[in-house]
Write the structure tokens for this entry.
Amino acid sequence: MCYLCLKFVINNVYCFFYNYSMKLVDKYILKQLLNNSFLILILIISLFCLAKSVQLIELMVGRGLPFWIFSKLILLSLPQIIPTLLPVIVSLSIFFVLSRMQTDKEMVILQSSNFSVFDILKPIIIFSIIMSLISFFFTLHQSPKSNQDFKVLLYTLKNDYSSTLLQEGTFNTFGKDFTIFVKQRKKDGLHNVFIHDTRDEKRTSTLIAKKGNLISTDESTKILLEQGSQHFQSKDKKLSVLYFDKYLLDIQQNENNSLLNRWKSPAERTLHELKNPDPNSGDDIKNLQAFKAELTLRYAMPLNIIGFSILVMFITISFAYTRKENISKTLLVFLTIIILQIISIISSNLSIKFSNYEMVNFFPIIFSLSSLLFFIPRSKKL
């Protein structure tokens, strides 16, 4: 869903530039960049979905979740990684397009047709700016919202004890205190219920009931047992049995488990929440530097697209044309992208760890533009 929306936005922006008095060469290069970026994005997202599904498969099997919830979890996690992937995707796309144009001698033809270096690179710069704007949309709006929805849904699944998550014929473990076995689950409730309660380690108990019904509220989840018995050991280690007609058991004891009391991480907060932390919250006070780092990171990541792509662009065209494949050029470009991504990750971690280091998030873009001083003089002639 996310990559389809992304392609829709890119197509509309591309159509705008296509119809806006753009040269044929510019349209051609933009189309090649768009196609390559989309294919690389699909490939990387497919690998990410595969890796994410491995992480969530235990939750899906253990809870017996339907496939649509499993798919929703994966889709909600995609906007979080798109701003991180875009600098790499755009850089690789630029490298592939320029390398192919050099191999097919299109660069030589354009140069002989009085095209300057800037004329050829102009659509690439425009494309980088467009992708940077799209990244701003994700970092400032979509990613925090999707991150919050993902955390809320995951939290709900782990703490929701609704009857849909109680699998019949299996032992369902809820938290550290309860193990519940349900023989049958029907429309009128649960039948033949077995519950092992270990809240009191010195006096564990077992409840057996012919029927049970779950009662869920915003604050807690309870199960009403009917026509059953409670088995436990007395102080003299003799088995005692207590029979009951109805027994109300609270299976969610921790008040901090309430969704309303859940502390929101910096990645799922809006810009307003990052700029205005709660002074009465101890967790907010402890994470003030993390808020500052997250705030600057949301502005720095889209700018990395421009810095990374321009650097890769000049590195690619700085090599002279050869008939054979230039392996050194390919290795240098891939190594550059890896180094830039490592610098970005290290800068992000440093900005969180050290006080008043949030501006370090802009170091990758500064490093990229500074490196141009070495490659621009070698790129005056294609």
User: Anything to note?
Assistant: The longest strand covers residues 221-233. Residues 2-160+283-379 form one domain. Residues 117-159 form the longest helix (43 residues).
